[in-house]
C-alpha cells in the first residue's frame, strides 16, 4: 500500500515515516521543511520513499502527491496554542482550509487517518472523564481548527481520527516545547521549574505509541473507520505538579514550585478516557517513566544553545 504523509518531516512524521517504510509501505512525504530539518535523511536510501518539497495548501501540489495513494495521513499543521496565536491566518489555512482542499480532491476509496487533539475538550468537568461523546469546547485557535478539521474528515467518511493526548518522547525532529519534553529539559539543565496553575490536568502519550496507533488503525481500518478515538496513557491523567513529581523520581535534584501569582495561557484542564481504543485491541507500551528516562538520555546529546555563548 502507498501512504501519503503531509508534514512528514515534523516531530511525529520523523518517527512515523521510517516505521512505515520498515513495515513495507511505500511512502510519499509532502513537507515545506520550514524548520530546515534533515530528519528524514536516513529514508532517502529506501527505494519506497519519495519526497516533495511543497505547501499542503496548494491544490495542484496536493493533486500530484495524492495520485495513486491508498492512505493519507495529514500531519501538516501549525501545532500548539502559542504558535497558532502568533500566526492565526496560517493556522486557519493550514489546519483547516488545506484539509477541505484535500477532501475535495481525494477519491472515496482513499483512506484518511487524522491526528486531532484531545485539547478540543477544553475544560472538563471535575472528576469526570472525557469520552469521545463528551462535548468539544476548544479554548484555543489550535484546538478550534483541529476540531473543525476532524468534523470535516469524519463527515466525509472512510476515515479515522485520533484525538492525541500531549505527546512526549524523542524524535529526529525534536520538539522541546511540549510539556513533558519541556519540563524534563528544564530539570536536566536548570534543575528547577516554576509551575503556573499546577492543578491543571491533562493526558499524555509517547510518540512511538502514537505511531503504533496509526499502524493499528491501518490494520483494523474497516472495524474502526468513521470514528474518533482518544489516544493517551490511561494511567497518565496527571496535573502539572504530579508530572513534576514523576520527573523528580528520576532526577532527585530537581526542584519545582507553584507560582503564587500569574496564570498559564493554556487553560485546558481535563482527564480523558482511552477505553474506546483499548477495546479495539490497542494498548500503549511506553510508560511516562520510560519516556522521562529516554528524554534524560536525549538531553545528554542535545543542547538548545543556538543563541547562547555557553
TrEMBL record:
Which SUPFAM superfamilies did the record assign? NAD(P)-binding Rossmann-fold domains
InterPro entries linked: Epimerase_deHydtase, Lipid_A_modif_metabolic_enz, NAD(P)-bd_dom_sf
One short Pfam name that applies is: Epimerase
- Please give the start and end residues of each transmembrane region: none
Where in the numbering of this chain does the NAD-dependent epimerase/dehydratase domain appear?
A: 3-232
PANTHER family registered for this protein in UniProt: BIFUNCTIONAL POLYMYXIN RESISTANCE PROTEIN ARNA, NAD(P)-BINDING DOMAIN-CONTAINING PROTEIN
Report the protein name in the record.
Nad dependent epimerase/dehydratase family
Amino acid at each position: 500500500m502507498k501512504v501519503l504523509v503531509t508534514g512528514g518531516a515534523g516531530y511525529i512524521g520523523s518517527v512515523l515515516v521510517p516505521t512505515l517504510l520498515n513495515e513495507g509501505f511505500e511512502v510519499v512525504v509532502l513537507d515545506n521543511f520550514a524548520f530546515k530539518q534533515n530528519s528524514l535523511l536516513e529514508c532517502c536510501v529506501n527505494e519506497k520513499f519519495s519526497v516533495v518539497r511543497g505547501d499542503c495548501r496548494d491544490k495542484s501540489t496536493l493533486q500530484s502527491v495524492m495520485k495513486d495513494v491508498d492512505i493519507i495521513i495529514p500531519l501538516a499543521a501549525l501545532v500548539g496554542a502559542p504558535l497558532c496565536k502568533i500566526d492565526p491566518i496560517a493556522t486557519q489555512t493550514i489546519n483547516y482550509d488545506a484539509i477541505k482542499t484535500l477532501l475535495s480532491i481525494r477519491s472515496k476509496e482513499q483512506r484518511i487517518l487524522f491526528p486531532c487533539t484531545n485539547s478540543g475538550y477544553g475544560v472538563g468537568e471535575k472528576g469526570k472523564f472525557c469520552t469521545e461523546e463528551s462535548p468539544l469546547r476548544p479554548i484555543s485557535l489550535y484546538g478550534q481548527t483541529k476540531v473543525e478539521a476532524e468534523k470535516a474528515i469524519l463527515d466525509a467518511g472512510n476515515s479515522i481520527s485520533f484525538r492525541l493526548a500531549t505527546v512526549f518522547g524523542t524524535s529526529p525532529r525534536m520538539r522541546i516545547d511540549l510539556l513533558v519534553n519541556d519540563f524534563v529539559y528544564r530539570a536536566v539543565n536548570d534543575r528547577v521549574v516554576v509551575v503556573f496553575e499546577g492543578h491543571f490536568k491533562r493526558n499524555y502519550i509517547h510518540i512511538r505509541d502514537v505511531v503504533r496507533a496509526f499502524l493499528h488503525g491501518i490494520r483494523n481500518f474497516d472495524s474502526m473507520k468513521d470514528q474518533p478515538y482518544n489516544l493517551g496513557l490511561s494511567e497518565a491523567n496527571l496535573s502539572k505538579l504530579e508530572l513534576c513529581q514523576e520527573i523528580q523520581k528520576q532526577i532527585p535534584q530537581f526542584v519545582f514550585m507553584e507560582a503564587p501569582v500569574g496564570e498559564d495561557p493554556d487553560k485546558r484542564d481535563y482527564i480523558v478516557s482511552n477505553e474506546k481504543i483499548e477495546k479495539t485491541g490497542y494498548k500503549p507500551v511506553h510508560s511516562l517513566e520510560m519516556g522521562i528516562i529516554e528524554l534524560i538520555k536525549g538531553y545528554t546529546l542535545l543542547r538548545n544553545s543556538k543563541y547562547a555563548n555557553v
